[in-house]
Design brief:
With about 160 residues, the chain is an alpha+beta fold. It has a domain at about 5-90 and about 130-150. Helices cover about 20% and strands about 35% of the residues. It contains 4 helices and 11 strands. Strand 3 and strand 4 (about 50-60) form a beta hairpin.
Length: about 160
């Protein structure tokens, strides 16, 4: 049975403090995998929730990327995608609203989309101008979703930022 979360549960999980490990920079460096680069990082929330960060980027198109925050419900193998930050590489349609756009966009899990048969929990998305590349999408997700960056990084998310 698929995991279903209410709007309140989704909001609580997004707000739950999540500390990145001290070696997060090395652990989020993507590695080649069938035409794209990918990496995953498991993170535990302050309240004990388990999360997975998933980073994917095309090796051919720099605008084709996805930065995902997923929640792992207790005693389940299936991940629940809370947020997904996508590049400007494809058209997106919000099915229930019949609204289509071509832009950088942020997907968010909603109770409404879970209620519709056959739709993924994070099928709803909004266009954004908050990022224009893969690294910007990572920064936005960390800012939006309750992450604490280790103090020894002086706020620099990537080695090149130091």
């Amino acid at each position: 049975m698929a995991t279903r979360l209410s709007e309140a549960e989704i909001s609580r999980l997004l707000a739950e403090r999540k500390s990145l490990p001290p070696d997060y920079r090395e652990r989020i460096q993507t590695k080649p995998k069938h035409g794209h680069k990918e990496r995953e990082l498991d993170v535990k929330g302050a309240d004990g929730s388990e999360f997975r960060l998933i980073f994917r980027q095309s090796e051919f198109n720099p605008l084709d990327f996805s930065v995902i925050l997923a929640y792992r419900p207790p005693k389940k193998n299936q991940l629940f995608r809370l947020r997904r930050y996508n590049g400007k590489s494809h058209e997106h349609t919000n099915t229930l609203e019949s609204r289509t756009f071509y832009d950088f966009h942020i997907h968010g899990a909603t109770e409404r989309y879970q209620d519709e048969s056959g739709l993924r929990e994070d099928s709803y998305a909004e266009p954004t101008n908050r990022f224009a590349d893969f690294r910007g999408a990572i920064r936005s997700m960390l800012e939006d979703c309750g992450f604490d960056v280790p103090p020894n990084t002086q706020g620099a998310l990537f080695e090149e930022d130091l």
